[in-house]
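ok posting inputs for the 5-amino-5-deoxy-1-O-phosphono-D-mannitol job
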Amino acid sequence: MCTVVGYIGRGYSREFVMEGLSRLEYRGYDSAGFSCLHPDDNRLLYVKAEGKLHNLVTKLEDSPIDGFTGIGHTRWSTHGASSVKNAHPQFDCERTISIVHNGIIENHRELKVKLLESGHVFHSDTDTEIIAHLFEALYKTHKTFKGAILDLVGYLQGAYAFITILQDKPDVMLLVRKRSPLCVGIGDGEMYVASDMLAFAGKTNKVLFLPDESFALVHKDMIELYHFDGTPLPMNIQEVELTWDMYEKQGHDHYMLKEIYEQKGAIHDTVDFLSTVHDRVWDDMGVTEQSIAQLDSINLLGCGTSWHAAYIAKFFFETICMIPTRVHLASEFRHMPLFAQKNSFYLALSQSGETADTLEGMRLIKSMALPIIALTNVSSSTMVRESDGFILTQAGREIAVASTKSFSTQLTALYWLAHRIALEKKIITSKKMQQAEKELLVVAEVLENCIENYRMPIMQTYAKEYAQYKNMIFLGRHISYPFALEAALKLKEIAYIFATCYPAGELKHGPLALVDEGMMTFVFSHQDPLVYQKLVSNVQEIKARKGKVTAFAFEDQKQLLDIADVSFIIPHVNPLLGPLAMTGLMQFLFYAIAKELDRPIDKPRNLAKSVTVE
Ligand code: M6R
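and the output
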């Protein structure tokens, strides 16, 4: 999504703002802008550029503006094409108010009509410009920031986090937040503002996360914080340990590759962490031992890769603790009837803990007084703050847009949780619980060994071959079907190769028509003999039509290995952990294909890491 960054203080702002934008560029990158107040006469200055951040860097070299108060933005377009006029900052009529915004103003059309009627002149197609003009009008009426903002937020519908600077008030920066994230790093006579604290990691460890529906007047050495109803809010400043060098590529060509390789360690860390919270896990999750003992249904929700992890986990919960489990796509959740069930909980999965669709689903669940738990990787996220309780993965920060280690650690945490619930319900013994933890550690080893077995020169040869294809079919059965969905998503997002995914049994009900000698089908195997045999039959149907097949198969699955054109071989593991064992190799192969095609792997076109709009 878009990124907003700001600085006010005793130093110049540009260096921090540009560095912050660059650190968070994974969030959005269609265009960028920087705006500041002239250090001598407070004139509002700005430079904007279309395209990636380095275009702005180049423009700023030619027009080296700077000031003690400055804001910046990278944009992921929602309203209006990617262009200089639509890049942020946006301004009021007089160009004395400058604003950068992340989010969507849903009622921007109605507001724009009214503002046009009262004589405001617009220069962009963005919803953000409406905020600048509306604030201009309201500030003229109220003459105080507080009065103007309180009125302003009454008009705005949607989600937003914006930062405003004003030519006439150089000593203050205005921050307003509803639904979209915004935080302030508190320095010594300086304040760093950003959508994500990664922007100021290493500069300060004191962070204020703006609460939902709040606004702040930020001075270089003081913050005034208010709720949207006008009441002052306490300053809940948190101490966080965060350094930027933890997030360098550390010799890898891409963050994605680094993160693929970090999976073994991240799975270990997640198992270690969960085994230490073993006794207090229900407290953390905001549930009671008794409610878990009585649990008779589970609801999971998430988007994208997190949804795929949830779908795989359905098999964990239904097999290990025998609890019927429903999986909801968070982006559809609000449009569906919500049947409140007794003895149930909702678990929202999100790497970032900021995904707007998932958050809105959680808010709906909460409004019905149903228990909502967040499973996330970011302890300081909005989801952790807004849920009844949480369970944390230990993937560490993920920078590449394509999720890798967050997926494998979500599977790890959910496999562990399924066992922990089974233990509470006395379905398994403590010994079995410990064995499950060991199984996860073994699979982490298998995951990494599989990557090592196909090191880069080998993988490159395969990648050259696959890079020729424009379309592919992906198939799985039982637990390998949601894994095939995740694999197809990975290929699409980083290599831009189209992949349609089906449960293998559905092939003959339609997609088989696509198969000929030019079609490649990926098949993800399963260790259950019945499921495996059915998969082999599906592969035979493809081969009979001269289609090409690549199999991710387990050792000794001779029939499949013989019939497939290409096979990637995985050692045997507990059948429920088959997808986790395949994860690293699948990601590594598709990374290699994307590299062969020279794609911008860490920042695929049109995508953003943190999707904070619905
Ligand atoms: O942060 P979240 O897990 O809530 O993100 C949800 C999806 O946007 C995300 O999983 C996305 O599908 C992946 N980055 C794709 O690799």
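notes: The chain has three domains: 3-246, 254-428, 453-608. The pocket of 5-amino-5-deoxy-1-O-phosphono-D-mannitol is lined by residues 303-306, 350-352, 355, 358, 401-403, 489, 493, 611 (CB under 6 Å).
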